[in-house]
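User: Hi! I'm working on a homework problem where we have to compare a predicted structure to a textbook description. Could you give me the structure for the chain below?
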Amino acid sequence: MILPFVLLIAIFYFMLIRPENKKKKAMEKMRSELAVGDVITTIGGIVGTICAVKEETIVIETGADRVRIEFTKWAVSTKGQQTDAATK
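Assistant: Happy to help. Predicted structure tokens:
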């Protein structure tokens, strides 16, 4: 009677909890390794180049008009140049 319950918990752990924790750690590592000059995309879809890195925030420069915007680090979605194949 208890074996199916234990099996169900193990399946939930390996299928749901463990992959989510790995993904969270990878995102945290990526955000801690941000450096000046990196191209990033925010969770709002803003793409820019990092011009300053502070403890909890980053300043990015967007577009040819050199607009600078400050974001918290948790707002960074991806690091690196986006391609058309990756967005489809």
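For your comparison, note the following. The two ends are 47 Å apart (CA to CA). Helices lie at 2-32, 84-87. Good luck with the assignment!
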